[in-house]
Amino acid sequence: MIVNRRNTLACIGVLALGAGGYAAYSGWFHAVPLSTPAGGIGKARAQDKVDQAKLLEPSTLGDRVLGAPDAKVVIIEYASATCPHCAHFHHETFPVLKKEYIDTGKVKFIFREFPLDNLALAAFMLARCAPQDKYYPLIDIFFEQQEKWTAGNPTDELFKIAQLAGFTRESFDACLKNETIAKGIHEIRERAGSAFGVDSTPTFFINGQVVRGAEPVEEFRKIIDAALAA
């Protein structure tokens, strides 16, 4: 099932039901091929770069940022919590980029949610409901334990992860019923496709230059170093 405004809200109610809800609607919790968001990909799809100023405009939910606010290079990643290629990037490449560029003040990093299915939406809603300092730790765990929480009963597995960020059963259920956050994430996904040509995950923008897919760290180094030298 593709994420859209109508089934987004239906999904939230089912997740809040717990194991029984999952058993009845297990077909909803599978990654599906990405459909182009409303408005199409248009001009942005054919370009190697997009307008950096437009790209940096935050959504209604705001951005979660790592690194120096005034860094010369900005990396924006659009990813899905259930995307194996995204998990590979965050396991293999991101720690190196963080150590060499983000932690040293050379790069500002922004992660933006692009859920490919309703299970990814639920994970991202939990990250958004958590305190801001728990956002990136939760994203890291979702990718690290992706194979575990996307199998079996995802509601129980997501709750186990959420507890690490201080969620109770009550706050967990309340988060998955939060229409404002669900709609905000959906808007991020739609704008990524219609304004910036995002049609797969992960997709990166390095000072506006498009990088599609989990490229090796050497490719990121080349682009980042060139941007720093410019």
Set out the fold topology.
Elements: H1 5-16, H2 19-24, H3 42-45, H4 52-55, E1 64-66, E2 73-79, H5 84-102, E3 107-113, H6 118-129, H7 132-144, H8 146-149, H9 154-163, H10 169-175, H11 179-196, E4 203-206, E5 209-212, H12 217-229
Parallel strand pairs: 2-3
Antiparallel strand pairs: 1-3, 2-4, 4-5
Number of helices: 12
Low-confidence runs: 1-46
Gap from first CA to last CA: 44 Å
Write down the domain tally. 1
Coarse shape: globular
- Secondary-structure element pattern, one letter each: HHHHEEHEHHHHHHEEH
How much helicity do the residues have?
A: 40-55%
CATH superfamily: Glutaredoxin
Classified by CATH, the class is Alpha Beta
Q: Specify the biggest β-sheet.
A: 5 strands, mixed
The CATH topology corresponds to: Glutaredoxin
Q: Which CATH architecture is right?
A: 3-Layer(aba) Sandwich
The largest sheet has its strands arranged as: 1-3-2-4-5
List its traits.
230 residues; alpha+beta; Glutaredoxin; 5-stranded mixed β-sheet; 5 strands
Commentary on this structure:
The protein is α+β, with helices and mostly antiparallel strands. The protein has a single domain (5-229), classed as Glutaredoxin (3-Layer(aba) Sandwich), CATH 3.40.30. It is 53% helix and 11% strand. It contains twelve helices and five strands. The chain has helices spanning 5-16, 19-24, 42-45, 52-55, 84-102, 118-129, 132-144, 146-149, 154-163, 169-175, 179-196, 217-229, and strands at residues 64-66, 73-79, 107-113, 203-206, 209-212. It has a five-stranded mixed β-sheet, with helices on both faces. Helix 6 runs antiparallel to helix 7 (132-144) and helix 6 (118-129) crosses helix 11. The longest helix is centred in the middle third of the chain and has 19 residues, at 84-102. The protein is globular and about 50 Å long. The N and C termini lie far apart (44 Å). The relative contact order is 0.21. The model is unreliable at 1-46 (pLDDT under 50).
